[in-house]
């Protein structure tokens, strides 16, 4: 077992929240880099795989859109917090996280990597999305779901800018990177980490009435999600968050990512199964479903790794 160490995983000193509002402030970039430097200095002789920040896409959603994680900021219709703005604050917080990441990576590459010889990357949560209906609108909703949830985080780290779809639909709500920040961000990962569990149907909100008012907003890319189509679930149930077992989602996700980010190392940094409450007795003790989950998801990953043809097939389709 080779450990990958995450420097910042959702935990925030209250003092920095009080002083300047934590990740909503650019000040947080410098304090994050200070903390990262300390970690490189103290542990870099042993830690060879660094992840700078865990799941900025999930953290900002729960901390600044839904308001269920500290600092519990949000606005209606996402939640009823005492302060916050769910439509823009997740974008601001993620913006500061991405720049903080790039600054820490520059520091690592300039001062630690040459003698410590490790690698550094960032992990985001990534579901796969399938079209909810068989028409162009649903396929566009898939693209927007990818852009607003996944490329949001990885495009800046690889290309130095947010995806075009986000710039189009968010307009001036989306923060901009300065010229220097673009240069700093571009190529600022030795690998991207993928936390992958499940697949959802992506619903187009702009041309249908199938969405909630929450999903039909620019911050959500005007895309909703569902776990069933025509009453048929996308896969067997897991015990949390409406996750479903969809092994082919792993394969399709990896094909898409290797197509968009060629020559980028990809690690699966999280994946796993959680049994629904009704499982009991032999099923639970023998872990049949979990074994099958890992078997099928690993097989799907292996298929994506082995076959360039899959990628071509995805393009043609
Ligand atoms: C939001 O919370 C406040 C304070 O608890 C309450 O007065 C108000 O009715 C709530 N609004 C909604 C829409 O739930
Ligand atoms: C979804 O939002 C768009 C843009 O704000 C609006 O034009 C449309 O009417 C909304 N759709 C529904 C079903 O509310």
Automatic annotation (TrEMBL):
<dbReference type="Pfam" id="PF00232">
    <property type="entry name" value="Glyco_hydro_1"/>
</dbReference>
<comment type="similarity">
    <text>Belongs to the glycosyl hydrolase 1 family.</text>
</comment>
<protein>
    <submittedName>
        <fullName>Uncharacterized protein</fullName>
    </submittedName>
</protein>
<dbReference type="InterPro" id="IPR017853">
    <property type="entry name" value="GH"/>
</dbReference>
<dbReference type="GO" id="GO:0008422">
    <property type="term" value="F:beta-glucosidase activity"/>
</dbReference>
<dbReference type="GO" id="GO:0005975">
    <property type="term" value="P:carbohydrate metabolic process"/>
</dbReference>
<dbReference type="InterPro" id="IPR001360">
    <property type="entry name" value="Glyco_hydro_1"/>
</dbReference>
């Amino acid at each position: 077992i080779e450990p990958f160490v995450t420097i910042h995983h959702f935990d925030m000193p209250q003092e920095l929240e009080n002083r300047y509002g934590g990740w909503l402030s650019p000040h947080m970039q410098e304090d994050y880099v200070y903390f990262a430097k300390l970690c490189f200095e103290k542990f870099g002789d042993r830690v060879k795989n660094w992840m700078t920040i865990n799941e900025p896409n999930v953290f900002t959603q729960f901390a600044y859109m839904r308001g269920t994680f500290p600092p519990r900021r949000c606005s209606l219709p996402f939640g009823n917090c005492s302060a916050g703005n769910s439509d823009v604050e997740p974008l601001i917080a993620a913006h500061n996280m991405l720049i903080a990441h790039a600054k820490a990576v520059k520091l690592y590459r300039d001062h630690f990597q040459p003698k410590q010889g490790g690698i550094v990357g960032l992990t985001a949560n990534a579901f796969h999305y399938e079209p909810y209906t068989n028409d162009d609108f649903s396929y566009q909703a898939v693209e927007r779901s990818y852009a607003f949830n996944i490329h949001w985080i990885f495009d800046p780290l690889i290309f130095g800018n947010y995806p075009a779809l986000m710039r189009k639909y968010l307009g001036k709500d989306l923060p901009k990177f300065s010229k220097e920040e673009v240069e700093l961000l571009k190529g600022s990962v030795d690998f991207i980490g993928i936390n992958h569990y499940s697949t959802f149907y992506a619903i187009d909100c702009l041309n249908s009435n199938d969405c909630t008012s929450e999903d039909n907003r620019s911050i959500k890319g005007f895309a909703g999600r569902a776990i069933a189509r025509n009453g048929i679930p996308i896969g067997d149930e897991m015990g949390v968050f409406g996750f479903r077992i969809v092994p082919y989602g792993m394969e399709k996700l990896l094909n898409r990512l290797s197509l968009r980010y060629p020559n980028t190392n990809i690690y699966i940094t999280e994946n796993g199964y959680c049994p629904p409450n009704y499982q009991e007795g032999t099923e639970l003790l023998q872990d049949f479903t979990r074994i099958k989950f890992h078997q099928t998801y690993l097989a799907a990953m292996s298929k994506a790794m082995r076959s360039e043809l899959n990628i071509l097939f995805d393009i043609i389709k």
